[in-house]
Amino acid sequence: MGKRNIKKLHIILLLLLVAVICVGIWLWQTNREPAAAPSSTLKSQHATLQNASGVLEVHMLDVGHGDCLLLISPSGATMLVDAGDDGLFEEVIDAYLRALDIDRLDIVLHTHAHADHIGGMDALLSGDYEIGCYLRPAAEAGKPTKKYEKLLATLDAADFPTYALWAGDPSPLNTWDDAVTVRVLSPLPDVSYSNVNDTSLILHVAYGNTSVLLTGDAARAAEQAVLKYGNPDDLRATLLKVGHHSSDSSSSKNFLRAVGADYAIISCGTDYKNPKPDTLKRLADYGIPPENQYITLYHGTIVARLDGTTITFTTEK
Ligand SMILES: [Zn+2]
Fold first, then answer.
1. Per-residue pLDDT tens over the stretch 87-104
2. Residue 71 CA to ligand 1 centre (angstroms)
3. Structural domain spans, the chain
4. Strand 302-306 vs strand 56-60: parallel, antiparallel, or unpaired?
5. 314: CA distance to ligand 1 center in Å?
6. Which of 27, 108, 222, 303 could form a disulfide with 198 if both were Cys (CB 3.0 to 4.6 A apart)?
7. Longest dimension (CA), the chain
8. In terms of Cα–Cα distance, which of 282, 218, 219 is closest to 253?
9. CA 141 – CA 316 distance, rounded (Å)
10. What's the pLDDT tens digit per position in 240-291?
């Protein structure tokens, strides 16, 4: 056998060896027993397949004065942020979820303990929704209201876990959807909050190059604390859920500058003379022109769709 033929034989043997290794790896992977999944995971996957859209949807329901946002992740995981004021659950929130065929909420959370954010929680928790877990801010300010004490007792007795969160704490938010990064930016454990509004969970939810900053009713003190003690770069978002129904006590200038959003969504009724013209002007001054400001009072329920590159809106009115 000549040298050239020996070289050819070596190459053929090498290719055969690679082929055998590849087939071996493939057989090993296909024959592996799948890890036993807990039933809740299976249910979650089922819900995921039903709702998967490939975009991050932020639904701001028209609940008048109050907040209720439904987030649906690209793979279909669901998150309800706040539940409006008393007496609206059946007519507004329940009807909306049913219309979308949603019967499981992977995460339910309240940003803070005021009635216009937790009003519908009792009705939600006593209904027939399957709930994965409940999140609330760990910070407290003042004595809890009777309504909030009742909610805490209901959560204590519930068959799903509740997490009280400070900024940076690990929670089910970290595994809500592999394609989405959710960070808790406030409340901060080293800050003392004197107002319930300032205990609000501030969440940054990012999908690709698009993101939404959820602020609850955080006012100036909480905004400044994040800027001072947190990393201001963490606030940068393409869509801002304007704090405290557009109140003048929120959306301070340096906070808006740090967020640098292109779009804003505002949940408000006519109570407290909202939306506040001065706040709308500040939004415009810091990069969110009036045509990019969506307000439930005028637009009804607002749906923002974040596809990782751009944001598109549909509104009820
Ligand atoms: Zn509020």
1. 999 999 999 999 999 999
2. 18
3. 52-315
4. antiparallel
5. 23
6. 222
7. 96
8. 282
9. 36
10. 999 999 999 999 999 999 999 999 999 999 999 999 999 999 999 999 999 9
Closest C-alpha to 71, from 217, 250, 211 = 211
CA–centroid distance, 246 to ligand 1, in Å, is 10
Percent of the chain with pLDDT strictly greater than 90: 82
Distance between Cα 28 and ligand 1 center (Å): 55
Task: Give the Å distance between the CA of 216 and the centre of ligand 1.
Answer: 7
CA of 234 to the centre of ligand 1 (A): 23
pLDDT at 3: 52
Ligand 1 centroid from CA 180, angstroms: 26
- The total number of residues shown for the chain amounts to 317
Tokens of 145: 């209201």
Torsion from C-alpha of 115, 117, 119, 123, nearest 10 degrees: -160
Question: What's the CATH code, domain 52-315?
Answer: 3.60.15.10
Q: pLDDT tens-digit profile of 210-245? A: 999 999 999 999 999 999 998 889 999 999 999 999
Kindly report the three-state secondary structure assignment for every residue of the chain: CCHHHHHHHHHHHHHHHHHHHHHHHHHHHHHCCCCCCCHHHHHHHHHHHHHCCCCEEEEECCCCCCCCEEEECCCCCEEEECCCCCCCHHHHHHHHHHHCCCCEECEEECCCCCHHHHCCHHHHHCCCCEECCEEEECCCCCCCCHHHHHHHHHHHHCCCCEEEECCCCCCHHHHCCCCEEEEEEECCCCCCCCCHHHHCCEEEEEECCEEEEECCCCCHHHHHHHHHHCCHHHHCCCEEECHHHHCCCCCCHHHHHHHCCCEEEECCCCHHHCCCHHHHHHHHHCCCCHHHEEEHHHHCCEEEEECCCCEEEEECC
How far does the centroid of ligand 1 lie from the alpha carbon of residue 32, in Å?
51
State the Cα–Cα distance between residues 4 and 9, nearest whole angstrom.
9
